[in-house]
Design goal:
three-stranded antiparallel beta sheet, binds zinc ion
Length: 90
């Protein structure tokens, strides 16, 4: 599979780790695949270990249409690879 850039490839493989990751998911509203940028404060499964009296966002994600690193249109660039990417991203 061809990646748009090395930064996207590296962050795509970072889904359950702390920090930023690019992920691909279906929206329940229209059953189509979309790209997201995700941020995690802690690794997947470690959320309960955080104790704070102040509300903390431990995870967040936003839909993205273009690669933040190289600017490629993601749905256009990965049109033929999206199903393979879903399997890799799970
Ligand atoms: Zn890119």
């Amino acid at each position: 599979m061809k990646w748009c850039c090395e930064s996207f490839q590296n962050s795509f493989n970072n889904k359950n780790n702390r920090g930023f990751a690019y992920i691909i998911e279906k929206l329940t509203s229209d059953d189509e695949l979309y790209f997201f940028i995700q941020f995690r404060a802690v690794e997947e499964g470690k959320q309960q270990e955080l104790k704070s009296n102040t509300p903390v966002s431990i995870e967040g994600k936003e839909c993205i249409w273009f690669c933040p690193n190289c600017g490629k249109n993601l749905k256009k660039f990965y049109k033929k690879s999206m199903k393979e990417m879903v399997a890799q991203n799970e």
